Amino acid sequence: MDRYLLKLQLVWVEELARYIMIWAILMAVPCCTAGREHMGLEFVTKRFPLVAQQIIKICVGALTFSFFGYIAYLGYTFAEKGANQLSTVFSMPMAYAYAAIPVTFALSSFQAFLVWLEDIYALKFYLASEKFDVQGEQL
Fold first, then answer.
1. How far, in Å, CA of 44 to CA of 23, rounded?
2. Where is pLDDT greater, at 75 or 129?
């Protein structure tokens, strides 16, 4: 709108749009993690029995939780280094822009932890229901 309709050519609009876009894109990662919309190996895991599928989900969940936590830690050290750098137009510390990495990956790690807990409880309830089916008792 700035460039084509108003013909103002404001310099700060492009830089602001860049930082907002970075934050918006990275904030989608925790949302996708909570909904299990990240990449998976369902083609391979669907060939295993149901208990093995649940165990694989738990193992992958632990790896995902750990990976996102590690990236959040590395992103924090990266953002610290950006405290001494200033953006071109706003002269704001680049740590605000770089903070998108540790914030979003910490949230992703938390979401992955919650999904991991869901998988553990799902396996626990599945095994408990199998136990009652073997004995022939109904709840």
1. 33
2. 75
46: which DSSP letter?
A: T
The model scores a pTM over 0.90 = no
Q: What is the pLDDT of residue 43?
A: 78
Would residue 2 be called left, alpha or beta, if left means φ above 0 and alpha means ψ between -120 and 50 degrees? alpha
Phi then psi for residue 93, to 5 deg, are: -60, 135
Radius of gyration of the chain (CA): 22
Count of beta carbons in the 10 Å neighbourhood of residue 116: 19
Rounded to whole angstroms, the Cα distance separating 55 from 48 reads 10
Question: How far apart (Å, rounded) are the C-alpha atoms in residues 119 and 53?
Answer: 10
* Cβ-Cβ contacts under 8 Å for 7 (sequence gap 6 or more): none
Does 139 or 82 have the greater pLDDT score?
Answer: 82
C-alpha span between 93 and 104 (Å, rounded): 19
pLDDT band at 138 (very low <50, low <70, confident <90, very high): low
Q: Is 36 left (phi over 0), alpha (psi -120 to 50) or beta?
A: left
